[in-house]
Amino acid sequence: MFTSRAARLFQEEIKHEQITFHAAASLAEDGNIEYKMKWRLQEGRGEAVYQIGVEDNGLLVGLSEEEMRASLKTLRRMAEKVGADITVLREREVDYDSDIPRKITEVLVRKVPDNQQFLDLRVAVLGNVDSGKSTLLGVLTQGELDNGRGRARLNLFRHLHEIQSGRTSSISFEILGFNSKGEVVNYSDSRTAEEICESSSKMITFIDLAGHHKYLKTTIFGLTSYCPDFAMLVVSANTGIAGTTREHLGLAMALKVPFFIVISKVDLCSKATVERTVKQLERILKQPGCNKLPLLVTSDDDAVTAAQQCAQSPNITPIFTLSSVSGENLDLLKIFLNILPPLTNSKEQEELMQQLTEFQVDEIYTVPEVGTVVGGTLSSGICKEGENLVVGPTDDGKFLHLKVCSIQRNRSACRVLRAGQAATLALGHFDRSLLRKGMVMVSPEMNPTICSVFEAEIVLLFHATTFRKGFQVTVHVGNVRQTAIVEKIHGKDKLRTGEKAVVCFRFIKHPEYLKIGAKLLFREGVTKGIGHVTYIQAITIGENGLEQSLDSELVSF
Fold first, then answer.
1. What are the residue boundaries of the Tr-type G domain, all occurrences included (predicted)?
2. Sign of the torsion angle spanned by Cα atoms 379, 381, 385, 391
């Protein structure tokens, strides 16, 4: 089954005549096709998939061997003119009323990156403790198979206790690149991060999250604040769905993050055990709560189809079975990641770039000879070296002026940061003690609004008894993570599991920067709920330093 994709919603079908007889085309037509390819690549943020041998009406007519060679030659010439490379993804013979064998070919056209604008996808890695998440990332990014005792994961750990226990407790980032021809670019050839960025047209940034239940708040923070494009749920073939697997699956679905599943450690199990784990996953995915359509990937053709369908249809969930020790089916996952398209097209990104600058602070460091460094994601606008911004809110609700001294993206220097991209910003000698996770750095013209009291429309996913006024929960909204108390439940005295309501919350420590419509997730022990922000009670800071309401009523934006 062939479905074409450029960006996410684009379809491009190349007619037989357009490609095969292009050699006789006029200069005007030549320029027109070149312009059309440029436009397709721009819409697909640097890549597009073409189908050769498909009519405009979708009829699969195919081309003969000679016609296909001529068509590919023409397409390659067009790609070279716009600075792109082509890679044949797959070929298939079609039954057409002809004595000569005819084929359809699907081709990936990817532009060689210029001005550091490689295509960047963020993939959050979820799964139960000891399911093989860090080991799989180590194998993908280092280019060497594991020895069966966890050697591949050692380079990913950030703390001594992680190395000693073999368990991730913090959020770490690993990069995997693909060049314009679709070849893997990683650390295997003793490359540095800078060299990987320079050689790659497409970059996959893996966000390695913790699997143990006691680090759940860290995992939720990684999912809400780093805005992953996709999530990769890793399930061990020998243990199946255990521990936090269901919880992580529920988090991805609650936050509406598209996900795919990797069943690891197939080398330790019999074929029957692997099949049992696959059936267990398929059964859960088909349940009414999930309503997903599982797609087991067993061939290159499946991997191409899965990558195209995963972004187009949120109900499709690819399932891979692989081993980080033997390398079985590892290439299928690489093919999938290479073709996986971005969820936003260039037009949506440009609209975000037209807005004022807003940078979420997710990490804070002190680097020798550099000073204070913050890491996070640029939600909107453009951030440049030397730009003056304000950061806040502080504990007393103020915003402080600062200057961006330098920018690094994927561990390499970058002069301009665009909306949707993650990076670290050096702030020079700015006092680190004034910063905390959950702050935002915004343009001074924005005049940011903060609040301590807000309302959200929520669904109570689980609570042992009844959810009432005065109950305290940990609220996650984007990069904001703080305890809040339930001030009021509109229209009801109490809530039970599965019920909906509009609830008024109050942060107990300090005000936060929130936006209407932001996804909200709250928890306390086994209590869990999701929703979105509907109102905020905006506050300002008076001359005496005290918080004063802009309005006695709740303000809707």
1. 118-346
2. negative
Closest CA to 478 of 222, 216, 229: 222
What are 35-41's contacts with CB under 8 Å, separation 24+? 37/78, 37/79, 37/82, 37/84, 37/109, 38/82, 40/6, 40/10, 40/12, 40/109, 41/82, 41/84, 41/109, 41/111
Please give the chain's pLDDT, 557 residues, in tens: 343 333 332 333 333 333 333 333 333 445 566 777 888 887 777 888 888 888 877 788 888 889 899 989 988 888 888 888 889 998 888 887 777 888 899 999 988 665 546 788 999 999 998 898 889 998 998 888 887 766 766 766 666 655 566 666 678 888 999 988 889 998 887 678 888 888 888 999 999 888 888 888 889 998 998 889 999 999 999 999 988 899 999 999 988 999 999 999 999 999 999 999 999 999 999 998 889 999 999 999 999 999 988 878 888 999 999 999 999 999 999 999 999 988 877 778 788 889 999 999 999 999 998 999 999 999 999 999 999 999 999 988 899 999 999 999 877 788 889 898 899 999 999 999 999 999 999 999 988 889 999 999 999 998 988 999 999 999 999 999 999 999 999 999 999 999 999 999 999 999 999 999 999 999 998 899 999 999 999 986 554 444 445 443 343 33
Cβ neighbour number for residue 105 with a 10 Å cutoff: 22
Distance CA 356, CA 402 (A): 16
Calculate the alpha carbon distances from 375 to 20, 311, 479 in Å: 50, 27, 12
Q: How far apart are CA 13 and CA 57, in angstroms?
A: 9
DSSP letter string, 344-395: S-HHHHHHHHTSPPEEEEEEEEEETTTEEEEEEEEEESEEETT-EEEEE--T
Residue 312's CB is within 10 A of a number of other CB atoms, namely 14
| Interatomic CA distance for residues 249 and 267, integer angstroms | 24
* Cβ within 8 Å of residue 99, ≥6 positions away: none
| C-alpha closest to that of 389 among 378, 404, 379 | 404
Sign of the C-alpha dihedral computed for residues 333, 339, 342 and 343 taken in this order: negative
For 93, the token pair is: 């013979």
Contact 486, 468 (CB under 8 A): yes
Residue with tokens 């398209």: 341
Q: Which is nearest to 215 in space by CA: 242, 264, 263, 248?
A: 248
Helices 27-43 and 346-353, axial angle in degrees (round to 10): 60
**Looking at the DSSP assignment, which residues form a beta bridge with residue 320?**
262
